[in-house]
Amino acid sequence: MTSPAIAWREERREAYEREQLCLAYVNGPLPRNDPRLLAPTRCRVLKAFGAFGRRVEPGETIELQYHDARSMAALHRVEILK
Question: What is the dihedral of CA 68, 79, 82, 55, to 10 degrees?
């Protein structure tokens, strides 16, 4: 049977190790975005909207980053061209 002081030290050591694991996770390297999300994507404008500091008219062909193109396609503003 262990003394209360030894049991307390064991509990503190385990708590310290758990805390160190959590800190390693929190302070670790940030996750990197997939580079494909930033790839230029050609799109045809279906509805006018503002981009590049100007109004983009329907029928124009523009290049947006892939993640922006997907967002605008979900809003039916652009059609992604292959």
Answer: -60
